[in-house]
Write a structure and sequence with these properties.
Strand order of the largest sheet: 4-6-5
Structural class: mainly alpha
Distance between the termini: 62 Å
Mean pLDDT: 75
Shape: elongated
Number of helices: 11
Low-confidence stretches: 2-13, 41-51, 252-258
Helix content: 55-70%
Number of strands: 7
Order of helices and strands: HHEEHHHHHHEEHHEEEH
Radius of gyration: 26 Å
Largest sheet: 3 strands, antiparallel
């Protein structure tokens, strides 16, 4: 039974997220090994390189930049960015999700939020990786400029990732959006047809008439209803003027409105 339970939470964890977490752990492990053993194996003319163990403000700045970057993107994601691919999962989110799975939490549940402890673990993991990266630059190049400059580039890449990722919703927003979707889907099943042609205003007006709590746009934006129409009927097509094909309001609903 224990094996089945372990297989269950592993199968529910996305493979890409496992790769992200694995690459983060792997880079941290390799960095730790390099810090421990690299100085003792480097020789030049039968003499060891001299490493200045003092840290400059640049080293700390590089560590901070890389720590911030690792919270949003992993080294693997940085590579994929140059290949034109954007992963939607933050490394920090993947770490917190994996931690939640290990603790037996249902991380796919609507409104789930990781505990403060898991969030602290994710931040700490990113800080450790950032410090290791900065130290590796210092050991390899003996110049903090490299860790700072590459850290700035990595933070910029993280910004590009965040722009390309879907909008993040809080747990309360997820619950609210799910409630709206249940209302709209029940309305659409009863009042809409996946054929014909109509203007979007007809759908908006009829939906808001049936559900008074969404009567004004400040309660529910038209853009959200458009997205739900597309989710309910993926075959629907919308013109620039707002006319839908493969969608119409049932005639009996139209007659009730007069």
């Amino acid at each position: 039974r224990d094996a089945e339970r372990d297989a269950g939470w592993l199968s529910s964890f996305d493979f890409d997220e496992l790769v992200i977490v694995g690459s983060a752990v792997g880079f941290s492990f390799l960095g730790a090994l390099a810090i421990l053993f690299l100085p003792s194996v480097i020789e030049q003319s039968d003499q060891m390189y001299y490493f200045d163990t003092s840290l400059s403000p640049g080293d700390f700045a590089g560590a901070m930049l890389w720590s911030l970057s690792y919270f949003f993107v992993s080294p693997l994601q940085l590579l994929l960015l140059f290949l034109g691919r954007i992963e939607t999962t933050r490394p920090s989110d993947a770490i917190m999700k994996l931690g939640g799975q290990v603790m037996g939490k249902d991380t796919e549940a609507l409104g789930y939020e990781p505990s403060a402890g898991l969030q602290a673990v994710a931040v700490l993991a990113c800080v450790v990786q950032g410090v290791i990266t900065s130290l590796l630059f210092e050991l390899a190049l003996e110049d903090a400029t490299w860790s700072v400059s590459t850290g700035i580039g990595s933070v910029f890449a993280a910004f590009v990732y965040e722009v390309g990722r879907p909008k993040r919703l809080s747990s309360s927003q997820e619950i609210e959006l799910e409630a709206v979707w249940l209302d709209f889907s029940s309305f659409a099943d009863a009042a809409l047809l996946k054929s014909g042609r109509c203007h979007e205003s007809e759908v908006f007006r009829e939906f808001r008439r049936r559900f008074g709590k969404y009567r004004t746009e400040d309660r529910l934006r038209d853009a959200v209803i458009r997205d739900m129409i597309k989710n309910w009927n993926p075959r629907v097509q919308r013109s620039r003027n707002g006319y839908y094909s493969n969608l119409s309001v049932a005639s009996r609903i139209l007659s009730d409105s007069f």
